[in-house]
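B., you asked whether I could sanity-check this one before it goes into the benchmark set. Here's the sequence:
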Amino acid sequence: MVQVSPSPDSETLLIELPRAIALCVTQEQFTALAAANRDLRLERTAKGELIVNLPTGWETGKRNWNIAGELYLWWRNGGEPGQAFDSSTGFVLPNGAIRSPDASWVSQERWEALTPEQKGTFANICPDFVVELRSNSDTIKTLQEKMREYIENGAKLGWLIDPQQRRVEIYHPSLAVEVLENPVELSGEKVLPGFVLNLRRVWD
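And here's what the prediction gave me:
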């Protein structure tokens, strides 16, 4: 739904946009929209199409908190130098898309290589590590497309976690997707050495 105010003296109108109609915005317009709608999780595709994600339900919020919390504890307790982020952080990928993974991490070397302008509101970088957690409103196909996009734009490790099926897809550059059925934990491998995510807290 889009709010339209034609002029200062006119009545505000609400327009329903069918899914078949894409609303395209520039990066500058996206930044302004995000600042004015902080309660929404907005994303932008490489073609400029605006994606509006409603706030998550409590189950997904709890799972997101557990994942991001475990990543933070690993980082705080001497994990690989870098920057860890939660689901509220947006990144401008090399292809122009603006994405907000549910959890992510960028190596210190790559982060320090960014100029102040490149960091900006949304850092111009694809994280080394990304997590997407499927909520009840997400389609698995859409999330798989996002995971491939992350890998194509520079991510070294990605986890697509599906609590509904207790299933995890692990993404690496130049490798086939690895599928795990009902795993109990996930390893950060060489990208995040020593990081282990206990999935019991996610499945429950």
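One thing to flag: The CA atoms of residues 36 and 148 lie 30 Å apart. Otherwise nothing jumped out at me.
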